[in-house]
Every structure is written in structure tokens, then in C-alpha cells.
Design a protein that fits this description.
Number of helices: 6
Helix content: over 70%
Distance between the termini: 76 Å
CATH architecture: Up-down Bundle
Number of strands: 0
Length: 194
């Protein structure tokens, strides 16, 4: 009888231990899931903030380069040269055309990728996406013309300048547009930056 009683106690203890193990596992999974969701939200916020900061800086920098070129009566290729260089502009001090073009390509790709990411992290209207799409196209046209310029450097024709002037004018209109300002404002509101 004593053995039967010990066997029943052992079975009961084993069942209780199993149930407690299951409960602990379920709680651990639930906590892990909750923590993962919180980390995801933080990551999403950080990515959205980065894209917002990029677009705001992108707009401000390009407008600055355009305004400075107008004040200095500089050719529009210098706008692209500044726009597709890093913030320190050390690549512009180089006389090595290959280094300049590779750096410009790197910065163009960065800007292009970040503009594309707006659609990943923000829900915008069809019209807003069209503005971003137009920005992407003008940025691409500007970069292509800049590459042609870099290859010709000293043999620029007036039609080359006119083509680049037209691209920069379109770029300027998009950057100064009320639609782009509205997109930036929507993004700011979505991430609640005051």
C-alpha cells in the first residue's frame, strides 16, 4: 500500500511538473512575442524617422546647391556635382575623374534607394507616390547628364547646358512644390515630430 501511495504521489508530482513546464513555456513564448513586437515597432520608427530626415535634408541640400549656383551664375552641372558628392566634398577636390564618378554613383544610388524606401515605410496617396516617382526620374536624368558631363568635362556644348538647365529647372519645381512639402508634413505627423 505504501508503494502504491508513493507511486500515486510521484505520478501527481510528475503531472504537476509537466503542467508547470507547459505554463512556463507558454508565458515565455508570450513574453518573447510581445518583446519582438516592441522591438519591431522601435525598428519601424527608427527607419521611418531616418527616411523622413533623409527627404527633408535631400530637399534642403539640393535647393541650397541650386540657389548657390544661381547666385554665382554657375553652370547647372556644378549643382549635380555638389548634389552627388558626400557632405565633406573631399571627392570634389580630387582631379581623378574616375574617383569623382565612382563617388557620384555611390551617392546617387544612396539617394535613389532612400527615395524608393519612402513607399516601404509610409502610406501615401497615389498623387504623393507620383511626386516621389517624378523626383526619382528627375534625379536619374540629372545623374545621367552629369555622367555625360564628367566624360566630356571640357567639351560641353550649349545644348548640353540647355538640357541640364531644363532638368535642374524641373528638379527645382518639384523640390519647391506644395505637394512635396505636404508629403514631408504627412511623414512628420506620422512619426509625431514636433
Amino acid at each position: 500500500m505504501n508503494t502504491l501511495f508513493n507511486l500515486e504521489n510521484t505520478t501527481i508530482l510528475s503531472n504537476v511538473a509537466t503542467i508547470l513546464g507547459v505554463i512556463v513555456s507558454v508565458v515565455a513564448i508570450w513574453l518573447s512575442s510581445k518583446q519582438s513586437k516592441e522591438q519591431y515597432k522601435i525598428s519601424q520608427y527608427e527607419n521611418r524617422k531616418e527616411i523622413y530626415d533623409f527627404l527633408k535634408t535631400f530637399k534642403d541640400n539640393w535647393l541650397f546647391y541650386i540657389d548657390m549656383a544661381i547666385k554665382r551664375e554657375d553652370n547647372t552641372f556644378n549643382i549635380a556635382r555638389n548634389g552627388f558628392s558626400n557632405d565633406e566634398k573631399e571627392d570634389l577636390r580630387s582631379n581623378d575623374i574616375t574617383k569623382i564618378v565612382l563617388s557620384a554613383n555611390k551617392h546617387y544610388n544612396y539617394q535613389h534607394d532612400k527615395l524608393n524606401e519612402i513607399g516601404i515605410y509610409y502610406k501615401l496617396s497615389k498623387e504623393d507616390y507620383e511626386i516621389i516617382g517624378q523626383l526619382l526620374l528627375v534625379l536619374e536624368d540629372c545623374f545621367k547628364e552629369y555622367l555625360k558631363y564628367a566624360n566630356k568635362m571640357h567639351n560641353i556644348k550649349s545644348e548640353d547646358l540647355q538640357r541640364m538647365d531644363s532638368i535642374v529647372r524641373k528638379f527645382y519645381e518639384l523640390l519647391e512644390s506644395k505637394q512635396l512639402e505636404n508629403i514631408i508634413e504627412k511623414m512628420r505627423k506620422e512619426i509625431s515630430i514636433n
